[in-house]
Amino acid sequence: LFCRETGSLARLITSLKENVFGSPTELLKLSVPSLVYALQNNMAFVALSNLDAAVYQVTYQLKIPCTALCTVLMLNRTLSKLQWFSVFMLCGGVTLVQWKPAQATKVQVEQNPWLGFGAIAVAVLCSGFAGVYFEKVLKSSDTSLWVRNIQMYLSGIVVTLFGVYMSDGAEVLEKGFFYGYTYYVWFVIFLASVGGLYTSVVVKYTDNIMKGFSAAAAIVLSTVASVILFGLQITVTFSLGALLVCISIYLYGLPRQDTTKIQPSETKSSKERLANV
To answer: Is residue 241 included in any domain, yes or no?
Structure first.
């Protein structure tokens, strides 16, 4: 894949010089999803702090149809009625898979439901927009996938470093940035990095909607692994949710018009595409 994307090490170095160090415009372009993802993560935290876990879990799954809507509006694509049905089925399946009965807690935290719903609405919109925006950038030029990742993550590093020093600057200066990092922490960081690169590959060669389906399948598989490794008990809601996820993946994958490429904007207007739903 490395050879397919870059051709050679010399070409990679040349591409880095041109697109990373010699093109501030491209860096600025890729800073948009970095900032939006940072906003999404913070809004998700605010939402979870002001909503019950079950309510948060259900409403946050709206990011799946939101991503599909952004795909239609921003990338000039069309989805069939069956595909839309499978998207909402996936949304319900993921909700059931992750569903846990509400439990009473001794710690009473003052919550603001309106703030929570507002925050989760922003997080859902950010999730859909950032993912589709990154997909559009990836597929609108011949720039290497790996160079695009470097461009985006450089902006992300700047944003997150600013947040770290704003919240824990004194402790970082006193104990060092890598204080408390163990081998397990480094391993988790490695897995997260590989997962981020893999996600970019999925977006490059399929689309953001399919990324949502693969993430849902990963949730089901990780739960099954927990059953095998840790003896987790399977519930009726999980079984039903897993079934819905599997059916939705099958329905979305049925033969259809190719939706992984960006179509010319003059083919159909946004209103016409939405009218087909």
So the answer is: yes
What are the residues whose beta carbons fall under 8 Å from the beta carbon of 89, sequence distance 6 or more? 244, 247, 248, 251
Question: How far is it, in rounded angstroms, from Cα 113 to Cα 121?
Answer: 12
* Residue 268, in any domain of the structure: no
Cβ(201)–Cβ(145) under 8 Å?
yes
Per the CB < 8 A criterion, the answer to whether 153 and 33 are in contact is: no
Who contacts 210 (Cβ-Cβ below 8 Å, separation ≥6)?
202, 252
12 vs 10: CA distance, rounded Å: 5
Question: Measured between alpha carbons, how far is 75 from 80 in angstroms, rounded to an integer?
Answer: 15
- Distances from the Cα of 240 to the Cαs of 55, 87, 225, 234, 237, in angstroms? 19, 16, 17, 11, 5
pLDDT, tens digit, for every residue of 142-189? 777 777 888 887 877 887 888 788 878 888 888 888 888 899 989 988
pTM: 0.73
Q: What total of structural domains would you count in the chain?
A: 1
